[in-house]
Amino acid sequence: MYYTYLLQSKQDGRWYMGYSDDLRKRFKEHNENKSTYTKNRGPFNLIYYEACFNEQDARSREKYLKSGMGKRYLKNRLKRFLSLTG
To answer: Quick one: which H or E segment has residue 26?
Structure first.
């Protein structure tokens, strides 16, 4: 399985989206500053993820969720969660 995931920085509240075949390991790497793109922005909360059968599906889903339509989808899907953290 591959996972498309959304992290939220506890430091600045900004989102980071990615995909991985080992979500637990990747989440740990982000929180230990071992990821180039999120270095020094942690710690993070994992606020959303989706499971996909293969890497191509996960990459496509990540690309969609980073688009304007995808961001609207996530904001609508996470509306209740975001009102609690905002």
So the answer is: helix 23-31
